Amino acid sequence: GQQVQQSPASLVLQEGENAELQCNFSTSLNSMQWFYQRPGGSLVSLFYNPSGTKHSGRLTSTTVIKERRSSLHISSSQTTDSGTYLCALERGNNRIFFGDGTQLVVKP
Amino acid sequence: GPKVLQIPSHQIIDMGQMVTLNCDPVSNHLYFYWYKQILGQQMEFLVNFYNGKVMEKSKLFKDQFSVERPDGSYFTLKIQPTALEDSAVYFCASSGGSQNTLYFGAGTRLSVL
Lengths: 108, 113
What we know:
Chain A is mostly beta strands. Chain A has no helices and 11 strands. In chain A, strand 9 and strand 10 form a beta hairpin. The relative contact order of chain A is 0.34. By secondary structure, chain B is mainly beta. Chain B is built from no helices and 11 strands. In chain B, the strands form 2 sheets. In chain B, strands 2, 4, 5, 6, 9, 10 and 11 form a 7-stranded mixed β-sheet that branches. In chain B, strands 1-3-8-7 form a 4-stranded antiparallel β-sheet, with no helix packed on it. Chain B is globular. The interface between A and B is medium-sized, with 22 and 25 residues.
């Protein structure tokens, strides 16, 4: 079954609004990573965050292991934030599972 | 930041032919991966590779697929023979730094005609 579930599947924002993306996992994990992908593009690592909270500019990632969830917060969204956001769960044996992603569209 | 290079960026071949996708991983990384992504769909795990061996592979990693990294050169994915359903973007990734962060290449778009 699906080991990593992301929500929402899609999200439309007006520029300047905030976004909260969720990733829930059904198994134990060694690490959690968030990626960004433009349509037809490669994956860019946003956060490697096995636990706790990390900040990078307008982005914040929080992973709570005992609740089996990780979130990505985007503040003051911009049109250039549009794309797909993926979370990836690493279990033992360096096996990495991806969620289905959240498709974000930020309108001007 | 660290770069994973993939060659070629686009490959067009006829069904039944062999194709080799090349990946130059981050230099000090030890774990290598191939993922397959059909347009608009989820990124799907194919295989991971460590110390010269396949560690784990998914059911998408058919018998026609093979991977190797001879003498520390390119990490390759070979498909022989190719099928129409192999058309996709194939992403290579590597990890193995202190944080085990996964770095992806730009992908090779494979079109099987």
